[in-house]
Structure formats: structure tokens, C-alpha cells
């Protein structure tokens, strides 16, 4: 009986895929001209221009870019769906950083915060203790030293530059080792980069100089005393290796509040009943602003991250404006994504339409780089898949459009980048709204000034956008909305 039930379920799934694919192919043929490279290229160049100075969250430049996006909505005829009859939903973000009154001293020599040292958590701390260097911290090296009551310095060995997955893995490893040292009695942990890890240090230090961000009252706004966890560049290794030194660390923190904004627009559906439900197109407009210069360029324009997602969302809006679906369309540009998915977290908690009316979320994140024939669909496999039907619709749309070879490694729970947890579909999935993310994944220019419009593959971006659009069209016109899979639960 169980085998028969499984057989029937597989046949039903196959028929659903076939019918969805047929509809997707027809819609793709009917609407291919609705998505064109020229529009996408124009919008990417506009948003990733130096004029917006990197669109950093909480800045006037993010607001200027947001006003430009709202004007595009008005021009294509989409209705305001923000607060108070506008396209805008404003919210506050809180920034916490290490203040300039903090001090970091090794053997009587002061270190400058940023270029010489960073704190991996801007927490209040005061330490004055002997410094002990333990090499790479092997069991043999640790057996030779007593770390109780001391600041432990350890050499951190990196991987060759360009290994993008190592950035997040490094922080996880540092936190784990520091916890081990503190448990053994250490009062502080100081990691020093080797030559291979140094490029990663430079990338992280530029970010950590800015501090941490959160919504008011969020976990990153909480400042509490803890054993310091610091990171130094390779240039400080000789200093750290000197014996019989004292380490002095006084960390003070300060907080600031800034405005950020979501931009929200809608297009009513054509069906009297289904128009009460929404297909939500999600993306984010912010990036990293102005940071430490690389090869003379200090503006992080974020062409792929995420002007490509923005251009795709605008193109989908124009296509639906020409031919609306049965369900209504809702497009949300989320502010402050780079600061911790703050705009999407805020919108999920304060939706401008009933949360129960959101049939599905299709999120666009970095859609224009890497191999022209490959892409990824985050949320397509367990435990990240929260709607099998929505995934099947996206798979059928892919076969009807670009036929991308889908990279599934980045959606796995054991991938060191944790990519599924780093874009705006996540808060919706946590709220049990069917959600997937269309992406062409990371590349060496990620979060650097080299992420410029000239490096985008616009033919690929057009194909990614068509894939996303045809998926949205299927959801908008299906007789029933995609259900959430029973038992859906993320691994963290």
C-alpha cells in the first residue's frame, strides 16, 4: 500500500512538472521580449554609478538611490504600497562600533584600530595581562605554556587568496578556538594572520572599522563585557613573538542611529479573488559605501551586489505592468541588507499587506557574474526548501528559459559560506512564507571596489531575470498558491 501511494505521488508530481513546464514555455515565448538587456544594463549602470557612492545603509546616498527606484515604480504605473500612501517604509538602524578612546598596546607599543588590529565583537573590555605566544596552537605547543590569566596570541594559517568560502569559515574557527582558550583560563585571544590569511584580514578590517548594525534592540546592539577577541595583520607577527611582553586592551563602544528605508510597490491582479494574494519580488538596494581604497578606488559600487537584483526586479515590474497576472504583484526593495538583512526583517515584522496574503517570495541576489550557463536556486533542497511546489515551478521555468546548470553545493547546510542565511528571502522563510533565492553566487570581486558595471555579464543577467519572471508568472496564475512543506525547519 505504501509503495502504491508513493508511486501515485510520483506520478502526480511528474504531471504537475509537465503541465507547469508547458505553461512556462508558452509564457516564456510570449514574454521573452519583455525582459531585455538594454534596460537591465541601463539600470545597473545607474545604481552602481559613483553618484550614489556605494549606497551604504543609513546614508543620504541610500535614500537618493531609493528615491530613484520609487520614481521608476511611478513611471511604470505601479501603485505605492509603503507607509502613508507612499512607496517608502522607513525604519531605524543602530550602529555599534569601537570608539576612538579605545587602546590596544603590546609591549608598550600602541596599535591603530583598523590597520593594526580589529575586535571581532565591539564589546566593552579591559585587560592588562602577560602575553604568551603559542604558535599555531597545536596540542604540543599548548602543552608547553600556561595560559591561565594571560592573553593568548596564536598564528592563524589561511588558505590561498581567492578562496571565498574561507572568509566565513575563518571567523567560525576563530570564535571556537577563542572559546577553548577562555575555558582554559585565558583573559584574551589575539589571532595574527600568516601571509595567506592577510588578504582576508584586509577585507574584514575594512568592514569591522564601521562596526556592527542591527534594528533597535537587536542582538548586535547589546554591549557586554567579555574576553577580548582580536585579530592582527601579518605585519605584527614579529612584535607579537617577542617574549615577556604585557598586553593592554581597553575597549569602549559607541552607538549611533540612522534611517534606512524599504521601497514597496504593487500591481493589482486581474482575478477578483486571487488578486487578494501577492507574488512578492524581493531584492535590496544598499551596498558598502566608501571604504578603504583598493588600487586607488574607495567607492564600493556593488554592481553585482546588488544592482543586478535591483535591475531584475524593475524589469519584472515593467513586464507585469504590460500584462498583469491573476494574483497581485508586490515588489519590495529592502534597505540595509548588507547590515544584517535589516530591511527584510523589519518588513516581515511590519508588512504593508497582510502577511498571510503573500503567496511566495522570489528573491534576487547577485545575478550577473560567473559562468554564463550556471546559477543557483537557494531554498531548493532540504533543510532549506520550505515549498516543494514553489521549487518545482522554478525548476520548470528554468527549463523553459535559460536551462541553467544549477549549482546545489551552496545551498547545502554544510557549506562554509552559509549563503542561504545571507539574503532577504531568509526572514520570510522563517515566517513560513514560501521563499527561494535566484543567484549566480560569489566571485573574487565580491565586496570590493572591483564590483563594477563593466564586469557584469548582461546576457546572463537577462536570462536570470527571465527565469525569475517566468517563475513569478507561474505563481501568479496557478489555481492554488504553493504550500509550505510540512515539518519545514532550518538547521539554525
TrEMBL record:
- Keywords of the record: Signal
Signal sequence, start to end: 1-24
Positions of the Peptidase M28 domain: 262-468
Name the SUPFAM superfamilies for this protein.
PA domain (SSF52025), Zn-dependent exopeptidases (SSF53187)
Q: Which domain of life does this protein belong to?
A: Bacteria
Q: Name one Pfam family in it.
A: Peptidase_M28
Q: What is this protein called?
A: M28 family peptidase
Species this protein is from? Fibrella forsythiae
Amino acid at each position: 500500500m505504501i509503495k502504491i501511494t508513493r508511486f501515485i505521488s510520483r506520478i502526480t508530481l511528474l504531471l504537475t512538472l509537465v503541465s507547469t513546464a508547458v505553461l512556462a514555455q508558452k509564457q516564456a515565448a510570449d514574454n521573452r521580449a519583455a525582459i531585455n538587456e538594454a534596460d537591465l544594463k541601463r539600470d545597473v549602470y545607474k545604481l552602481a554609478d559613483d553618484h550614489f557612492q556605494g549606497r551604504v545603509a543609513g546614508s543620504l546616498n541610500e535614500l537618493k538611490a531609493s528615491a530613484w527606484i520609487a520614481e521608476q515604480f511611478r513611471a511604470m504605473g505601479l501603485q505605492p504600497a509603503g507607509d502613508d500612501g507612499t512607496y517608502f517604509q522607513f525604519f531605524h538602524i543602530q550602529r555599534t562600533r569601537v570608539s576612538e578612546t579605545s587602546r590596544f598596546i603590546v609591549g608598550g607599543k600602541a596599535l591603530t584600530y583598523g590597520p593594526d588590529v580589529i575586535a571581532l565583537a565591539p564589546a566593552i573590555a579591559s585587560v592588562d595581562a602577560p602575553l604568551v605566544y603559542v604558535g599555531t596552537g597545536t596540542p604540543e605547543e599548548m602543552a608547553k605554556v600556561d595560559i591561565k590569566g594571560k592573553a593568548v596570541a596564536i598564528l592563524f594559517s589561511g588558505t590561498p587568496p581567492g578562496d571565498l568560502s574561507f572568509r566565513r569559515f575563518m571567523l567560525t574557527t576563530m570564535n571556537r578556538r577563542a572559546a577553548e582558550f577562555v575555558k582554559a583560563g585565558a583573559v584574551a585571544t589575539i589571532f595574527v594572520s600568516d601571509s595567506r590569511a592577510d588578504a582576508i584580514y584586509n577585507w574584514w578590517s575594512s568592514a569591522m572599522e564601521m562596526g556592527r548594525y542591527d534594528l533597535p534592540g537587536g542582538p548586535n546592539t547589546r554591549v557586554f563585557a567579555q574576553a577580548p577577541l582580536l585579530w592582527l595583520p601579518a605585519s605584527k607577527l614579529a612584535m607579537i613573538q617577542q617574549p615577556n611582553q604585557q598586553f593592554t586592551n581597553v575597549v569602549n563602544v559607541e552607538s549611533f542611529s540612522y534611517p534606512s528605508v524599504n521601497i514597496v510597490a504593487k500591481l493589482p491582479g486581474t482575478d477578483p479573488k486571487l488578486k487578494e494574494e501577492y507574488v512578492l519580488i524581493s531584492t535590496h538596494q544598499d551596498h558598502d559605501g566608501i571604504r578603504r581604497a583598493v588600487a586607488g578606488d574607495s567607492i564600493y559600487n556593488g554592481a553585482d551586489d546588488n544592482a543586478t537584483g535591483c535591475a531584475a526586479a524593475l524589469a519584472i515590474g515593467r513586464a507585469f505592468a504590460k500584462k498583469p497576472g491573476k494574483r497581485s504583484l508586490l515588489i519590495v526593495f529592502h534597505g540595509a541588507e548588507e547590515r544584517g538583512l535589516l530591511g527584510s526583517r523589519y518588513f516581515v515584522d511590519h508588512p504593508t499587506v497582510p502577511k498571510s496574503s503573500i503567496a511566495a517570495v522570489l528573491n534576487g541576489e547577485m545575478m550577473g557574474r560567473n559562468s554564463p550557463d550556471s546559477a543557483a536556486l537557494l531554498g531548493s533542497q532540504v533543510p532549506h526548501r520550505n515549498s516543494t511546489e514553489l521549487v518545482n515551478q522554478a525548476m520548470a521555468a528554468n527549463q523553459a528559459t535559460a536551462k541553467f546548470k544549477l549549482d546545489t553545493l551552496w545551498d547545502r547546510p554544510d557549506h562554509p559560506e552559509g549563503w542561504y542565511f545571507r539574503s532577504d528571502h531568509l526572514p520570510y522563510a522563517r515566517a513560513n512564507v514560501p521563499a527561494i533565492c535566484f543567484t549566480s553566487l560569489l566571485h573574487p570581486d565580491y565586496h570590493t571596489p572591483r564590483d563594477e558595471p563593466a564586469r557584469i555579464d548582461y546576457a546572463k543577467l537577462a536570462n536570470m531575470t527571465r527565469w525569475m519572471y517566468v517563475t513569478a508568472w507561474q505563481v501568479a496564475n496557478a489555481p492554488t498558491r504553493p504550500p509550505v512543506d510540512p515539518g519545514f525547519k532550518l538547521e539554525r
